[in-house]
TrEMBL record:
Residues 24-274 form the EAL domain. This is Bifunctional diguanylate cyclase/phosphodiesterase. Residues 10-37 form a coiled coil.
């Protein structure tokens, strides 16, 4: 009987797995088509200087405008694209789009683009980035490439070599999701990053868990000692803004500053500046 039900469970999982594999295949096929059909869009989320609320750049975040499924978030298709290699093409498309858009802005703000592990391990990545900068006319110092530490695990030497070559172009390199990997500190030791982005899982717990608060403070101290500006991701509340500003965090990113939006919505970030500026007035009024 146990055997029977065991087999039943197996059959159940087998069916589930077949379904998952089928779904992934469909997704992969549709995604390939989406890239050629231009169903992908890049949204932009503002980053604000913590001290005065001035918007200093935007992060490019890809979305898939699926004809049936609607707006698909990146976490639903980036992993699939990473698995089957489509990420190379997808990533190149995002990079080109984001650099072209940024080059058209009337202020020379920074543009941050996420690089997947597979991309960072492509031998021709620096050449590609160089070519895109020339084609779009974007100054290298305005481009910031965000990598997570898992990007260094595939082929450590190649990844580091690529990072050095990118830096030599004048491009900035940010470490994304800091603190969530297995060896964030060694990664930080291995390369002179231009920026550290504290993962939102810590930021969201500021004042909710003592430990998170202590960790955020420690990362900010680490950044200060290493002279690497720290950005807080996922800033959602006024309380978090006040805390981070008080701890001399360099930049803030999150719904409290502005949500990711399409290129034509970017002028709305002036409102975000007002929100942060008001906060500092309030802090002053409270005598802090
Ligand atoms: P990420 O690079 O860490 O980007 C930050 C994510 O946090 C974004 O999710 C953003 O919308 C979300 N976020 C921003 N502020 C807040 C907030 O206040 N609260 C909360 N709860 N979330 C906030 P999104 O756009 O869904 O992207 C998820 C991840 O997908 C990104 O994480 C990045 O790893 C990846 N991704 C997005 N676009 C690209 C891309 O073009 N290429 C690659 N390789 N990865 C991408
Ligand atoms: Mg990022
Ligand atoms: Mg992140
Ligand atoms: Mg993330």
């Amino acid at each position: 009987r146990a055997k029977e039900s065991g087999r039943g469970v197996y059959r159940f999982f087998k069916r589930e797995m077949d379904e998952t594999i089928r779904e992934r295949r469909t997704l992969a096929r549709e995604l390939r088509q989406a890239i050629t059909d231009e169903e992908l869009v890049v949204f932009y989320q503002p980053l604000a200087r913590a001290a005065d609320g001035e918007v200093c750049g935007f992060e490019a975040l890809v979305r898939w405008k699926h004809p049936v499924r609607g707006m698909v978030p990146p976490l639903d298709f980036i992993p699939v694209a990473e698995e089957n290699g489509l990420i190379t093409q997808l990533g190149e498309w995002v990079l080109r789009r984001a650099c072209a858009d940024a080059a058209s802005w009337d202020r020379p703000l920074r543009i941050a683009v996420n690089l997947s592990p597979l991309q960072l391990n492509q031998p021709n990545l620096p050449t590609l980035v160089h070519e895109v900068l020339i084609a779009t006319g974007l100054s290298p110092s305005r481009l910031e490439l965000e990598i997570t530490e898992s990007a260094l695990f595939k082929d450590y030497q190649r990844a580091l070599d690529n990072l050095r070559r990118l830096k030599a172009l004048g491009v900035r390199i940010a470490m994304d999701d800091f603190g969530t990997g297995f060896s964030s500190l060694s990664t930080l030791q291995s390369f002179p990053f231009d920026k550290i982005k504290i993962d939102k899982s810590f930021v969201e717990n500021i004042h909710r868990h003592d430990r998170a608060t202590v960790i955020v403070r420690a990362v900010l101290g680490l950044g200060r000692s290493l002279e690497i500006p720290v950005v807080a991701e996922g800033v959602e509340t006024q309380e978090q803004i006040d805390f981070l500003r008080g701890e001399s965090c360099a930049e803030l990113q999150g719904y409290a500053i502005g949500r990711p939006g399409p290129i034509d919505s970017l002028s709305a970030w002036t409102l975000a500046r007002a929100a942060v500026a008001n906060a500092s007035e309030q802090t002053k009024a409270r005598g802090a």
